[in-house]
Predict the 3D structure of the following.
Amino acid sequence: MDKLTAFHERFTECLKFSGVKQVDLAAAVNVSKQCVSDYKSGKSVPSIDTLYLICKFLDVSADYLLGLED
């Protein structure tokens, strides 16, 4: 699994299981709802600063989201 595939699949999974709405995550990490949608679809990946905020908000490790650990 490549890095981008791992990220968007795991990010989508975390959003689904947490019950967090895209708009709420977008507001919490200071990006647009479209950015969150692009992260889910694999069109883009967050900056390191945004990744940090996403991890804190979803209570998940960056290593997990990036496919470095299970």
